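To: structure subgroup
Subject: Chain for Friday's discussion

All,

I'm putting the inputs and outputs inline so they're searchable in the archive.
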Amino acid sequence: MGGDGLLLSQSRQRIVCLSSLKASVQVTTIDLSASLVLNTCIIHYRHQEFSHWLHMLALETQGSSSPVLEQRKKRTFPQILAPIIFSTSISNVNISIQLGDTPPFALGFNSISLDYQHLRPQSIHQRGVLTVDHLCWRVGSDSHIQRAPHPPNMHVWGEALVLDSFTLQGSYNQPLGLSSTQSDTLFLDCTIRGLQVEASDTCAQCLSRILSLMGPQSGKSVVSRESSFGESVSLLWKVDLKVEDMNLFTLSALVGASEVRLDTLTVLGSAETSSVGIQGLVLALVKSVTEKMQPCCKAPDIPTPVLSLSMLSVTYHSSIRSLEVQCGAGLTLLWSPPDHMYLYQHVLDTLHCRDLLRATMFPEIVPSLTLETPGTTSELEAHLPEPSPPKRLLNLTLEVNTAKLTAFVAEDKFITLAAESVSLSRHGGSLQAYCPELAAGFDGNSIFNFKEVEVQLLPELEEMILHRNPFPALQTLRNRVWLLSLGSVSVEFPYQYDFSQTLDEAVGVQKWLKGLHQGTPAWASPSPAPLPPDLLLKVQHFSWVFLDDIFEVKLHDNYELMKDESKESAKRLQLLDAKVAALRKQHGELLPARKIEELYASLERKNIEIYIQRSRRLYGNTPMRRALLTWSLAGLELVALADASFHGPARVVEQVRELDPGSPFPAEGVDLVIQWCRMLKCNVKTFLIRIRDYPRYLFEIREWRLMGRLVGTEQSGHPCSRRRQILHLGLPWGNVAVERNMPPLKFYHDFHSEIFQYTVVWGPCWDPAWTLIGQCVDLLTKPSADPSPPLPWWDKSRLLLHGDWHMDIEQANLHQLATEDPYNTTENMHWEWSHLSFHWKSGQFVFKGDLDINVRTASKYDDCCFLHLPDLCMTLDLQWLCHGNPHDHHGVTLRAPEFLPEVPLGQLYDSYRAFRSENLNLSIKMDLTRHSGTISQPRILLYSSTLRWMQNFWATWTSVTRPICRGKLFNNLKPSKKKLGQHYKQLSYTALFPQLQVHYWASFAQQRGIQIECSQGHVFTRGTQRLIPQAGTVMRRLISDWSVTQMVSDLSQVTVHLMASPTEENADHCLDPLVTKTHLLSLSSLTYQRHSNRTAEEELSTRDGDPTFHTHQLHLVDLRISWTTTNRDIAFGLYDGYKKAAVLKRNLSTEALKGLKIDPQMPAKKPKRGVLTNAPAPPRVNAPSFSGRPDKGPSGGAYMLQKLIEETDRFVVFTEEESGMSEQLCGIAACQTDDIYNRNCLIELVNCQMVLRGAETEGCVIVSAAKAQLLQCQHHPAWYGDTLKQKTSWTCLLDGMQYFATTETSPTEQDGRQLWLEVKNIEEHRQRSLDSVQELMESGQAVGGMVTTTTDWNQPAEAQQAQQVQRIISRCNCRMYYISYSHDIDPELATQIKPPEVHENQEKEDLLKKQEGAVDTFTLIHHELEISTNPAQYAMILDIVNNLLLHVEPKRKEHSEKKQRVRFQLEISSNPEEQRSSILHLQEAVRQHVAQIRQLEKQMYSIMKSLQDDSKNENLLDLNQKLQLQLNQEKANLQLESEELNILIRCFKDFQLQRANKMELRKQQEDVSVVRRTEFYFAQARWRLTEEDGQLGIAELELQRFLYSKVNKSDDTAEHLLELGWFTMNNLLPNAVYKVVLRPQSSCQSGRQLALRLFSKVRPPVGGISVKEHFEVNVVPLTIQLTHQFFHRMMGFFFPGRSVEDDEVGDEEDKSKLVTTGIPVVKPRQLIATDDAVPLGPGKGVAQGLTRSSGVRRSFRKSPEHPVDDIDKMKERAAMNNSFIYIKIPQVPLCVSYKGEKNSVDWGDLNLVLPCLEYHNNTWTWLDFAMAVKRDSRKALVAQVIKEKLRLKPATGSEVRGKLETKSDLNMQQQEEEEKARLLIGLSVGDKNPGKKSIFGRRK
């Protein structure tokens, strides 16, 4: 059958157009074949046009008989057994259809051919081949228009389906027979090329309409087919599908199109195994469809794919239900939020299409599904039937070769995740994943790197059950487990990379995705969430690194290179110097200079080349250091256990309240967004943090085990606590706002940890690097959106961390670095805790353990354990001072910037205002009174070098750190962070100890030191800090000012010993065990209190100036001091060492020579005298009024009066009574003013005593005082002249003073133990009951009484064999006053001071007061002294005074001689400024010595370290010995040169100032002011001289109103004044003829009269010659009554063992010796009178007068050891001479009586007058002066004696001659008469110095 050309049309519209159609059927005996060929068929179907006909056709079919139809349906076709062959070929067909209101669509293809065979041999065999060529299905309004053939590799929008070629071959085999065991077999083979599928709403509508037309039949057929397939279980099938160039598109009206490209898809399926293989998979987005066509490229060529994959293989094994997925290399995903929205929209549209089709196909089963209706899932669950028994889970295996995922979280911020060889498998309930390498990058920086990552999700794990055992409180026994195992984790942050921005954007995107896909969560139902799984994390190695600034690294490396290169170039230069020297030796002068210059120039060039080469090769061998901070962990194992007992919000809140009981919990409860609680168990083998490549770790923790609870909560913020983060999605969505919760995540913990070793190292030298680390850390977390100032780290930790933390540490170490070099490892302070128990709870740290603090330094003092505190409990209490409750962290509400409340103008809003701490009060308590099994004493060990080291340490730690990387240049304008040190307001410290031992060694080599021991004691101190802003416009740091406000100390049983080694030097490195200890002082209790000045002000204001309140109060009970020659030598040694160190430090400082260049044109003013002429001082006392107006000119009366007053001494006349004498003393007057603002210091001593032992005499003197008070007051600043000064006064009151001495000349010392007085003998005198024998024996309180002593203060005297001592001075009182003035004014007081008043009459100024002004004054007053001594005690007192109190070190004298020599050198040099260069050279030499000593100490340190390992190494021991000797030599050289330098600098300064003063004096005549005043006053003193037994008296000397005053003035002059109101000497010998030996002739003892006055005015020496400007002696007329017996007794008392008869022999011996002043006698034959003929001024006279044996000992001068040069001669000559400008000695009348021996002649009332003597402008030695006085006295006395002789009997002529001859000290023949005359003349001259010179004058 065939037909050609068919056309069917309607209304000029073609409906069907057919070119040709052929059909044929052929039946043969063998087979049955049919064929159909159709060519070029075009069909246009319009449903509107055909609807009428179809409607009629439907009515027609309804009207026809239904039974016929039924029969037709029931009719069956006959079974054909012959083979059937069918073939068809259809080509060039186009069909366009429009169904009602749906868009039209068209279907066209080039050709379709189908071949089908149906064969029946033994089985039914069907086979078919279907081929389709260029099939295209178009959808859309213009789809009916015929188009050109489909262009290759292009997709035209609107073509829903395109097939370039389709080939399907299939065969189906069904075996015959019911009993056949074979199954049915089905084979399909399909090949598709050029498949394009487009899904759009239009397609879905068309398909839906077609399916609705096909209607229910299709639905039924599907169901029946399913049932038939269910029956035929045994079907064997195999499918082979291959698709090439496959493109799937989805088209959306809103968001363009998406494209999925598969280059090749291969599907191999069978009943057992199915596999799908994909080559070249790409997902891309076409965001806007503007063109009509879209090119279809190969997968690699598609631009900007979202997802690309080179190869994917999926295999499914049905028998074992396992699925295997393999991804080849190159899985890449490029994701961004806009792309996600595009994909999301496309997926929504696709699902919408699917739901539309489903609703069409299965209207009764599936309700309409849309994503937009959130209730769908719950409805579905309700409709589903009961769940069937669980099937076996699918086993899944996934392998990914390489994968890279990139997610853009903002336009310029992205996160990448790269993985290699990922494998994932699921078997049963467990899931396992493994990845050998995983990396996460941010913004192109590889930050996180994971290696050997293994993840397991297990239903349960036996290991976790073991981990639960230590926590018995857990309820859940088994739980599922997530196990995460990592080989290594490394985190690296590039320098200055802002990680927080990207992370914050990523979190915002995650929140947005969560909101986008979750909608209203279905799990928000009341049903509880399941228990989360346990976590087991194992990390073998973890490292966290902040990378350093490359510029900084290169800078440091280059500096090190330059340092090394400079050393190397110096070595090369040294070699060249040696070679040149060798060449010069070889060639001599022939070697040309140019040649040498060329050699040195070439070396310089070579140095430069080598440096450049080394610089280029710097990183060739060793890589550049990169890390700024490295944190590494090894062997980390973390277990986190979940449990039903703390799961769920309510239970978590319970845990929070339990862990943080101190914080007030809100009454309304807390709404938590995040809440979890886990039991943690963690083990870390090593925990290390290192800064840069510094040699020490910042933190080093080893073997760390941690257990405990950890809770994390985040509060749900109020609407005002939610910030909005904007996400830019682009059109058509615009911007999306994501709400972010602002309250922070808080942690609550209760941890117990055990650590084997914990080490922290820190030093200010690490601070710059730490600042950079802080800046890096700031870039990790985004600052809060709340505009409040950020919290400092201490408040942030209080806000986020709550709970307890216990640590048990076996060995804890803190190293405080003490240098500015971060690479130094030897200099540090080491805090070493052993068995430390540490507890951290809210606001408190508690440390318990044994603490040793060591000083580590590279010298022999290394490992000095200077503090050993066993069983220490140290508590640090932190009190945070806040506006609100410091624990109320729940009350902190953060606010978004748009929800800020209004605040007053000029005030910043602060969300943390109530919580933020304003200040911190820290309280430290160190308690050593815990009792443990082992008793170990707390001790402190110090060396002087340790203290020096600590000074450097303190200077290093308190140095101000510089700003690091701050300012515009570094884009860092944040306000600088406050340091914790500035946050303290109050610091209090308490120490409690049962006993304490302190050793201080001033010298390790000389073994000299102090040991202090005390029992029970406690110390409390409190200090406050003020931050003072600096003046000026420049922003500067606040100055921290600490002041101690309170201090309380209580110590009991304190003993201080001085220690010294018997050997002088000790070369070994250990302390000498034979160190001798001598007692220095001890006391039974010491109490010290200090109160703050502010408190003092308040107290004073409330108490109205109560004098009992003092800032410092020290109370000492039972103080006992021993002062012996041994103690003196050790103390002098200690002081000398200290002084030398201080001098060395001062002289090596850069300040040593500053301020010494003195311009002669501009003389430097002295600081103490800044009197300006235009601002005179207001008179402070009543000025003497001048009558009338004085003349202006200098010749006026006032000027003359002024000169007169200036020249007159103000102590010449006293007009007041005796009682007022002490009131005239300036010291008392200045101390008794009422301008005190602070009673600063009060020292009280109760029952104190001091034992003094001399060097040459046995026995001791004990000085005791029942009560002593020392008071220091600070007075209000006042104007003195035009200078503002502050006055400080000291007042010392000694009550109940007594002096005791031993009576025996050689008392037996019991084991060298000290003698002490019993307390009853020291205490205030009380009324005694004389009932006991002991009281009667001790003879009361009188002078001369005996008392018993004790050797132990804890035992009474009766318990021992006590030794008695005699009271030599009875109870007396002593007062001392010292006033000093300072220019340093307290800044707080300075503001309250008014400026000085300006007076109209400036001339009427009180001149005396101006002169006195502000003068440093010392005053000592004794009211009554009762003294009694025997000769032995007198000798002992002299010995003690000379050798203990007035002792001068021999080296001191040598030092002063050296100084004098240098002075002369300076004075005779022409240009003293030349000395400056020699000082600088000497300074450099001394610095070299210091450096050399440090170098030697470091070498010895390294040798000692080596000897610790190899102690028997002979070479090292020898080297150590050599170094020790070298060190000792260097120290000796250093001492010599340091002393020389000190002398040079001091003399140079003095000389310069002296020259400046001379210039100044020449320049202007300013007023001379007083700068210092010294006063001594005794109201009455009675001295009783006794025999050896101490009871029988010899003589009694009485002095009244003794006053000595010394005034130092600003022009370096001094005035000495000595006054004596009355004196008498009584003879106490039995049967004495004369009872009064010496007395003034006038009997009046009123205060108006002076018995003796001595005045001397001294100028500064000129050229080494002392200048006496004025010297005057006034004596009242004297009466002398003497007996020979009394004279003998007195000589025996003062000079025991000396015979008076042998006196002349002594005189002869002395002829060639020195006089007592130590001056060589010029003429050997001249002699001096018995008294030194003249007093040497009070200072010299007292010192030399107390030396009883210096006439022999000190006068003798050895022959000089070194040759004497000119300077020495000049110095000696100058020292001998005094320049006397004016001397006056008024006449003295004498009345002399003498009773000689039995046969001698007596004198009675012999009247003699010493004449008035005056001398002017003489340069004399003291000898010359004495000779002049002798000469002139002799002239006057000769005449008087002759007169008296004429009145006497003739027998006395020889006596008179004897007197005259004795005057010239020549040998006399009549011993007796000569004795009288010598005594007479000697006494007459000695009277000038209250009768003492005649007694003390002759010394032997």
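Points worth raising on Friday:
The longest strand covers residues 1039-1060.
The longest helix spans residues 1514-1563.

D.
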